[in-house]
Amino acid sequence: MRVDLFDFELPPELIALRPASPRDAARMLVVAGEEPFADRTVRDLPSLLRAGDVLVFNDTRVIPAQLEGMRGEARVGATLHKRIDLRRWQAFVRNAKRLREGDTIAFGSDVEAVAEVRHPDGSWTLAFTGDEPVEVLLERAGRMPLPPYIAGKRPTDERDRSDYQTMFAARDGAVAAPTAALHFTPELIAALDDAGIGRETLTLHVGAGTFLPVKADDTDDHAMHAEWGRIDAATADRLNAARANGGRVIAVGTTSLRLLESAAGEDGVIRPFQGDTSIFITPGYRFKAIDGLMTNFHLPKSTLFMLVSALMGRERMQAAYAHAIAQGYRFYSYGDSSLLLP
Predict the structure, then answer these.
(1) pTM given for the model
(2) Does the pLDDT of residue 212 top 70, yes or no?
């Protein structure tokens, strides 16, 4: 499909630079089948779902994966993208033309990495020196990797270390937050429990590729970056049982959705999964594992806007986004939410 079919105009003042406070006070646009759009808030979620439904959260934790360093006299920036092993990460590098294989980059006084391999997409494998865990080094030298549409408008600060982390964050490895879950609070979870709505977690370590623009003119020519994910057998069994009993599986965020769909067979059964996924969902895709999606508002011509268009229909989502813009919803990672129920 032509990528320009997924374009729309967004007034820049609607890009949220901070999350709602409290988090569950964010607005939420409900798009349910062909019903009229409903303007609600995230706190209304318990009344919008049914007892027996299950929300599926991503428990990945964002690491401070953005680094500034020097290669000799040249300034070099790196955003870690995907773990290769205990000491090596694939990274997008700024000012990469100054880098050669074997060069050492100093990220501060006591954190160093060697540029090992340049990949065809322009990224590099960086091997961190020493014996300390890389996560410890990043806590010392790294910054939270805010999306460019926020970082380009204000500097990252200490508040982002908590703001850009969900309450479910437990497993280090993401370089972008699963932002749909930023809206959840202990109070909202308690209300969902009282309403008989279940919850499960999986892990998908979101990569920096989620921010990369689609440069191809046709979706067939776009290559997705792989991300590592895991669903254990017990979680898969409980999700399958919930659906068998009439409950709906609602993915909280496109990251949860993509991993669930990667783990499901053509028979709709979710199976244990561990490994990389580069699933790319566009209109025409037949969903197997999920019955709904809670997600923020996405960038024009992005793979994520293509995904929600596949779930609800492209014209329906263009109309929903036009409604959200007209009503002043806040967009992107720190913005408002939507609940999509086909």
Answers:
(1) 0.93
(2) no
Q: Which residue has the tokens 């010392």?
A: 140
Q: Which domain covers residue 188, as residue numbers?
A: 3-62+162-341
Same domain flag for 302 and 234: yes
> How does pLDDT run across 311-331, given as a tens digit for each residue?
999 999 999 999 999 999 999
- My answer on whether 279 and 189 are in the same domain is yes
Tell me the HSE value of 229 on the side-chain side, using a 13 A CA sphere.
30
| 199/300 same-domain check | yes
